[in-house]
Amino acid sequence: VFFEKIFVTRPWKALFVTTDDDIREWWSRWRVDRYSVVFGVTFGAGLLALQRMDHIPGSALAPLAAIVSIAAYTTFTLFCGNVADCEEIHSYIVFIP
Asked: Do 29 and 7 form a contact (C-beta atoms < 8 A)?
């Protein structure tokens, strides 16, 4: 109710709702990607800080880490049975690069 009160009032209404005042589509998309920006900014700031302090190890393990991360996320995607559960978990594991 509070969420709808904020996003169905003018001037925000034109950005978030359809013509029939339904915000379900926007709400479901927001729930899936709600932490993406926070994870991205945190990862970027951490990466820059580590680069400036020269604490990033050699790139020998970088391809292996990328392959393991992609394999883990692909496995999760293939074995997830319920779409609602997958979308709920997605917002918490989106930090996997």
From this structure: no
Residues of the chain predicted below pLDDT 70: 1-4, 6-8, 12-23, 57-59, 94-97
Say if residues 77 and 90 touch (Cβ distance below 8 Å).
no
Quick one: DSSP state of residue 58? Answer: P
Max CA separation in the chain (angstroms):
55
CA 39: distance to chain centroid? 7
Pair of tokens at residue 21 = 């005042």
Q: How far apart are CA 9 and CA 3, in angstroms?
A: 10
| Pair 35, 90: CB distance under 8 Å | no
In this prediction, residue 1 carries a pLDDT of 59
pLDDT of residue 79: 85
3-class secondary structure for 59-78? CCCHHHHHHHHHHHHHHHHH
Of 53, 50, 44, 32, the residue nearest 97 (C-alpha): 44
